[in-house]
Amino acid sequence: MNQMDKPKIKRLAPQLASQIAAGEVVERPASVVKECLENSLDAGATRIEVDIEKGGKQLIRIRDNGCGISKDELPLALAQHATSKIATLDDLAKITSLGFRGEALASISSISRFALTSATQADGQETNTAWRVQVEGQNSQAKLTPAAHPPGTTIEVHDLFFNTPARRKFLRTDKTELSHIEEIIKRLALSRFDLDLCLRHHNKIVYQFKAAATEIAREQRIAKIFGGGFLKQALALDMSIEGLRLWGWISLPEFSRSQTDLQYFYVNGRIIRDRLINHAIRQAYADVIHPGRQPLFALYLEIDPSNVDVNVHPTKHEVRFRESRLVHDFIVKSLQDALACENSVQPKINMPETDLSFQKNQGIQGKKVEPQKSIRVTKPTKANQVQETLASYQALSQTTLGRVIGHAHQQHLLIEHIDGLLSIDLMIAQQKLLFAKLQQALQTNALHTQPLLMPTTVTLAASHISIIDAACDHLAKVGFELTRSDENAVLVRSIPKLLRDTQITHIIQAIFAKLYEHRDELTTFDLEALLIVISQAAVDNKINDVSLAKLEQLLTQLEATFSVQAIMQMATLIPLAAK
Ligand code: ADP
Ligand code: MG
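That is the input. Now the predicted structure with magnesium ion docked in place:
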């Protein structure tokens, strides 16, 4: 290009500069939510409500009860490089706020129809001293008007990218954009248990988290995000050494996933995805998890802020530790210890009753009720084949308790009973069935042992291994054969036949933990109590096969094993009289 044709160098108009900068800050609606949430937190908010329409493309509204912005500062809040968070270069070194670049609001307001309404705490005392500033993309001047608003701030972002159609085109479906926003909300919910946080889409609640002050409330929040079954399959841990603390929840190796989506790691409250940390976690699980499977976790590392640099990369969530080897090894050791069951505390949340001990007194030996099935055996011809199958199918489901009508959440077996709807916890039912089988086999000397094709090494807590001799004796009586394989591990060679297809590692660890608890009375430890531990450990996962055939088979087994009375004790009846 020759010099004559070359356009002259001009200074960009501030609005245009903002729009270009916005490309870096705002990729999609979720980025707006993230920036605004950070501002709300920096403003000391304890309650934040997020309203979304059309996945955030039409509206993002974020309302907080933070310190607010006074009238004279309002126009500045939207200006580029305007921030209340740092004033000098020195401030950068000891930053404690989430934002500090002074770019977010300038960027967002340049690519949307934007309004910010705010009242400071003092303003809020009187009426109508809130102010609202409104801008519409690049070409409009900020309009300042009085408004009504409680102390705090509301940001409204309408029609994101309305003036940058090229960017708008890159947005995905509402559902996808909403899922990105949900992820931002989940990350925040897990990092700030003290926050009241709510996400609505078209006025429908997606997530509502009440401030969680107690351990139980925190675990309820964990359950909302990780799913109800997680805590039953998780270990709570809390480990510290000088200058470092790691606490949170991790899944047992058996409760793994194929994706990495339920993995949350925070360093001093900030979500981090970091190679060093990922490596440490992988290493801790290396021997116990199936390769290719992913553990679930919410983990919190607390470290002296001067030993970590969190501003290495603003969006990639990387950190730099001064003593990275120490941090790495501390994480590995903490998780390994927890996985070996030592130092871990069981989650405290209310769980469905899984204590089988009452069974020893009642139920199992109770009267057997023969299912009253009447299956006609006729040779179906082609013409009546379908009808025939249907008839026998119905006959099968007509048992004494009632008709299986399905399941709820893969957790409850639902039965249409003469008095209403019966619901039976699937996991408890399976545990009780397994216990009954093991117990019967024990009593009749029929606990057959089966050698494992591949002997399994199970790592144990150092303290647990101390009772290995007594444990091996007990285990031999219920059909296990194992030997010590190294300092902290045993090699399992054979298991009771009834336990094939179960998670042996978990069962062995549970047995050792239980026996260790009773280490002073091992000689008199009741074998049936051991069977209870085994049944609970063997059936502690979500029941995967909930096909009608499987559910019916389960009910048939229950009825063949337990008295009606014992089954009714396991069940909840929702009275629904037939008319
Ligand atoms: P930064 O967060 O980097 O300072 P922003 O553009 O995100 O820059 O915000 C600019 C300024 O506006 C902030 O420094 C803060 O003073 C003010 N501000 C933004 N959002 C809020 C809010 N929700 N409550 C109180 N003040 C806010
Ligand atoms: Mg900010």
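The pocket of adenosine-5'-diphosphate (ligand 1) is lined by residues 35, 39-40, 43, 64, 66-69, 77, 82-85, 99-106, 153 (CB under 6 Å).
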